[in-house]
């Protein structure tokens, strides 16, 4: 894996756990795998800066990264969740109790449950990178 410094992003606020924003603690992009290493609409787990992350490549080509830890049970299983959509937004359902989370920002869509941390992603060449 390689890392590069994150360039200054103008107009993108810093909100911890929100995909597309940069947490002030985020210092670099990390190459995690190649695009062709992921199967569309299935998750894979990766270790990024000591943190377990669930990666998803959707059939649309969008790439998402969320916390691998299920906030309800504490088990590291989100990469095995069910990819879907709700109101046109990409989601992941926990494989254990089926709580549904929005992949873009990790928000729990089933009531007032705990959210997942979401991480900014990008594709550079054929590599998927996650900010951490």
UniProtKB/TrEMBL annotation:
SUPFAM superfamilies xrefs: ISP domain (SSF50022)
Top-level lineage group: Bacteria
Keyword vocabulary terms for this entry: 2Fe-2S, Iron, Iron-sulfur, Metal-binding, Nitrate assimilation, Oxidoreductase
UniProt-listed InterPro entries: NirD, Rieske-like_NirD, Rieske_2Fe-2S, Rieske_2Fe-2S_sf
Annotated coiled-coil segments of the chain: none
Rieske domain span: 30-130
PANTHER family for this protein: NITRITE REDUCTASE (NADH) SMALL SUBUNIT, PTHR40562
Protein name: Nitrite reductase small subunit NirD
Lineage: Bacteria, Bacillati, Actinomycetota, Actinomycetes, Micrococcales
